[in-house]
Each structure stands twice: as structure tokens, then as C-alpha cells.
Amino acid sequence: MSTETFFLIFIGFSIFLAVFVNYIRFKVTTRLNKLFLIMSFSLLIVLQEYFFEVTSILTIISLIIISTFSFQIYVGLIISGVVAIYLALFTTKFNLFLLFTFIVLSIGTRFFTIFINKRKNEQELYKKLLVKNSKELNVYREVSIMMQRTYELERILKIIVTSVTAGHGLGFNRAMILLVINDGTRVQGKLGVGPMTADEGFVAWELITKNRYRLIDLIEMQDEDDQIDPQLNKLIKELDIKLEKGNFLFNALENEMPYIMNEIDKSDEIQSLFARLFNMEEFAVFPLITQGVKVGVLIIDNPVNKKPITSEAIDSVIPMANQAAIAIQQSHLYKQVENMAWKDGLTGLLNQRAFQTISEKYIATARKEALSLIMLDIDYFKNFNDTNGHLQGNQALIQVAQIIEKSVRKDDYAFRFGGEEFVILLPKTNEPEATAIAERIRVNIQEEKFQGGDKQPFGMLTVSLGVASTANLKTVTTNKLIETADQVLYEAKVFGRNNVKSYTELI
Amino acid sequence: MNELIMAFVLCIFVLTILMTSRYFYLLDIKLQARKIMKRLDINIAELNYSFEQISYFYTLPSNITALKSARKENILIEYDYDSILFQQLKGIKIYVEQQDKHDLLLAYLTINDFRLPSLDVLMEEEKIDENSYLKISIYKLIHPVTIKQIKDEVYKQILIGRYDVMDDAMNEKIV
């Protein structure tokens, strides 16, 4: 065999050795992986010496570099020593200068590796921070857009808890919100998202990934389904906690800072309560405060993956909590303004403006589903005012409003129409049903004790009621319905007051 | 002369090591993941995952020309490895190809964030360890079907962003 052919075979063998080493080294542990690589270089040196009687210094240098790069400097130095002994025993190439060169090479490689690793770690850190911050920024932006689309408190709360828990969001397993009530003396449970047990969490997680739900889909889903995490929400809604000095909710709101409860402090009754109710082992609480107004608290924990809650995680929730506090407070203010615009200041019932909007909504479908209206007027109310004074008159109006509210059904609407006149709008109700409800109101008012009522002509405060329904009208408009009910009410007055008349009776 | 040839042999050896290491790393991941999945009776197609863990570095839909005019073919996926010698997949980089410019890094998905619920359950039940989890999740991530789905998802994000509902025409365009 010629030398050229032998060289070619050796090159082929080197390629085979490299492929073989790569094939096996990923099957073993990282340490063995590195060891195999060093061994393959060593084998190459030995084979070069054995077959060609060539001591390749370049291959030896590569071996020392790989050894120091793979392991610590000590391994590089040991390898340098072993190579030096090998050269001394089996070759004629050994000299002290070469040994010195190997040692310097090993030290140099080590410093270079440290430098490279430092740069690499820095780059990894930058990448990690970029990914984390981009993700958080996307979540805040997404949540902010969704919050801007609504003033409804319930929806805002859903957005907050879903964003904190969704995979794309901040990734906590469970979140719940309690809102401050009674001028800041108590907090009441409002809403939560998350499992009660780890198994429940895995099922939900599988469902979310299977259906590829986005954050917005999860929020929309919650809008459709009021029964999301029913067991958790049942427990949360039962929570009504007094804010007392010493309990963690009070501390978070008073000190305006979040707390991580790594362990349950059994001396804090409220912490023990949460641990017991929700199987909590570790959790964090965030105060929801905006412009000095304490609106509530957000509580998060990880009952599924048991991931520890870190200070870093806390930092990522704080902007969300601040945004949530603003949104909740804005929703409260919007509700107040809406109440002022839609509600009668004295009785708290809906006012005429509200009647216009609500009645228009139902009159549109009144041909398909009967819409009834009761008009109520307090009998001899001028006499009541003249006898008992206007303050007592106002009190009577409030009492009448309360009785009306108690006497009507959940889907009915009660309005104060002006003075002592009230209107009740009854969707999907025919005239006989409406008449029965009117009679119930009349009886309840008759049986109520009003201060100064005994000075009325009947010896008590009474009302007259007129009932009309779109089912009996040729022209179905709001004005026609009111006009008809008003005519019927007039007949009730003429008939002797303290009675209910319907349009059917009139015709 | 012989010293020169040995240097040549060394170069061939080192180059072969470097050039085949990624292939053998991924081959090993595939073989080991398949072995573990066979033992646990798991089908790769049935492993669900979420796109929600992809971190986007640009607001989508964007006004940047490269993103605005991007087609699905312009979306490139590059595996991100830890080391050239001791390979370890860290995640995938998602680029948008630009004419006459560097490709634009649009998003990144780290392997640690690529969680698979079925594996989470198995790990909770101590049927697999973190290492096996990693191997299967890498196998799932580099699977051609997953890569195609990720490209489709990224293209969808480029077209409509995260917030809007997609109509049928848009859906057809993406598919």
C-alpha cells in the first residue's frame, strides 16, 4: 500500500472517528460528553505517532485547548503534564520549553474561556431580560387595550385576574380580587380565576393549549360563562373581612406595598383562613390603590406548579396592579355618574331619562313579547304634605319606592316619574300578570305603616294604579303605552282611589 | 511534510466534529424522545402546546415596512444553541426576511417556556424527570408540523395582531 493511500485511509478514519464520537457523546452525560471528546483527540495523537511516527504539536495543542475549554484549568494542566510525560517517554520531542508552552497555553485558554463565558452569560442575560420585558410589555399593552374598552366593573375584574393567570399573561396559577367596601373598613371577595387543586389546574391548562385560547379568548369565555371556577368563586364571594390592624390585607393597604407570604403566619387569623379555604401554602398580596384611594387587593398563588413567588415576579405584577386600581376606580366613578344621571336622587329608583332609554329598548320587541306598564299615584298626597310637612312627604315617597322595589320581579323596572307618580315597566308580561303585580303593590302599601298616614282621608296612605299592555294596543309606542296607563289611572282615581284598574276593564 | 499532513488531518477531524455535532445532537434528541414517548405511550401529535409563550419584540400588526409587507415565505425560524461544541437548544429565533438588509428578529421562544401540559402532569406524577421533559419538548418544538404551525401563527400575528377576531377571508389567507 502506498503512503498516499495510507494517508487517505487515515483521513477517512479521522472522519469516521469524529462522526462516531459525535454519535455517542450526546447519548451520555455532559461530563462524559466532554471526556469522550478529549479521548478522541488523544486517540488521534497516539494513532499519528503509531502509524506515521509523527508527533503533531498542533494536535497536542488542540487537545490542551479542548481539555481546558471543557473542564477547569486543572484538567488542562494535568493533560499538559500527561502529554509532556508521553513526549518524554515515547518521543524525542520533549523539552522544558514545550512543557512551559503547554502550561501557558492552558492558562491562556482558561482566561479566554472565562472571557468568552462572561460575554456569553451577559448575552444570555440580555436575551432573557429582552424576552421577559417584551412579554410583560405585551401583556400590559393588551390588558390596557381591553380595560379601555369597558367601564363594567365585572369585566375589568375578569381582565385583571385572567391576565395575571393566563400563560401569555404573567403566568401565575391563581388570582383573586377583594374590593374595599364600607368606607375602607372591610374588604369583600369579588372574583377569582384558578383551580382549587393541582389536578384541576392541569385539566384547565390542557384545555387551553388544546384549543389554542388567547388571553382575549379566555376573557370572552368568562363573559359568556358566569360559572367559571364555580367552587373558587363561591368561596371568594363569601369573603367579607374586616380590615383590622395586624392582618395582612390591612398591612398591604395601609403600607401601600405588596407582601409575599412564603409561609402561612398562623398568628394572623385571616392568613390561616385563606390557607384553609384555598389550600394556600405561599401567596402574595398586592394593594390596589390609586390617588390615595384604596380600592381593593389582588392575591396570587401557584397551587399547581408550586413555583416560588419571587421578588422579580412581584415587580412584574405591580404595574398591572396599579393599572387595575385605576380601572376599578374609574368604573366606580362611572357608576356613580351613571347613577346620578339615571337615578332619582330621593328614592333611588330609575328616573324619567332612564325610562326613555329602557322603554325604547323593550318597545322595539313589544309586538312579539307583550310589554306592560303600571302607573302609580299616591292618593291625596298634597293633603299628606300639607298635614305632615314636606320632609315627612319625602320620607313617604322613599318608603313607597322601597315597597315597589320589593313587590316587583327581578326583571321589572321601577321609575319615579315625577312628584308622587311612579311607573313600573314589565317586560314579557301580559295585562293580567301586570294587574296582579299592581294589586300586590297596592296591598303592600296599604299594609305599610307611614308616619302621619293616619291623617289621610282613608286613615292610611294609599295608592291608585292603572295598568296597560302593548298586547291590547293598536299602535305600539312608548307614548301610547303611557297615555293609556295614565287614562286607566285616572279611572282608578274616579272609581274611588286605593284600587287597581286595567285597560281591559276600561274598554 | 508529515507534520503538515497531520495538521490537515486535524483540520478535517475538527471540522467534522463541528459540522456534524448539531445533526447528531438533534438525532439523539429525536431517538431518546421517541424511546421515552414509546415507554409512556405518548403520541407526538397529541402533545398540546401554546403559542402564547412566544415573545414578540414588535407591536403587531406593525407599520414597519418589512413586517407590513411580509409574506409567509419570509418568516424564517432559526434554532438557537448554547454552544458550538456542546450543543444545547435554548429556543428558536423567529426572523422576517428583509430585502437587502439583515433579517429582522421578530420573536423568540425559549425552550423553558415551551411547556406541554401532558408532560407537566407526567412530571408531577414523577413518571418523567426534567431531562426527559426537555428532550420531548425539544423534539416537539423542532417537529416540522410544529414549525409550520408556529410560522402560521406568527404570520397571523403579523396580519391581525393579538386583539382582533379573524374573519374567514383572513383565515384562508393564513392557511
TrEMBL record, chain A:
Q: Which residues form the GGDEF domain?
A: 369-505
- Keywords noted in UniProt: Membrane, Transmembrane, Transmembrane helix
Q: Which GO terms describe its biological process?
A: cell adhesion involved in single-species biofilm formation; negative regulation of bacterial-type flagellum-dependent cell motility
SMART domains from the entry? GGDEF
**For this UniProt entry, what's an example GO CC term?**
plasma membrane
Tell me one GO molecular function of this protein: diguanylate cyclase activity
Q: Which domain of life is it from?
A: Bacteria
Short name of one Pfam family: GAF
Q: Does the keyword Transmembrane helix apply?
A: yes
Residue spans crossing the bilayer: 6-24, 36-65, 71-89, 96-116
SUPFAM superfamilies, per the entry: GAF domain-like, Nucleotide cyclase
- Any keyword Transmembrane helix? yes
Concerning PANTHER family, the annotation shows: DIGUANYLATE CYCLASE DGCM-RELATED, REGULATORY COMPONENTS OF SENSORY TRANSDUCTION SYSTEM
Q: What is this protein called?
A: GGDEF domain-containing protein
- Which lineage do the record's taxonomy fields give for this organism? Bacteria, Bacillati, Bacillota, Bacilli, Bacillales
UniProtKB/TrEMBL annotation, chain B:
Kindly state which keywords UniProt assigns to this record, in alphabetical order.
Membrane, Transmembrane, Transmembrane helix
Q: Enumerate the transmembrane spans.
A: 6-27
Top-level division of the source organism's lineage = Bacteria
Name assigned to this protein: Uncharacterized protein
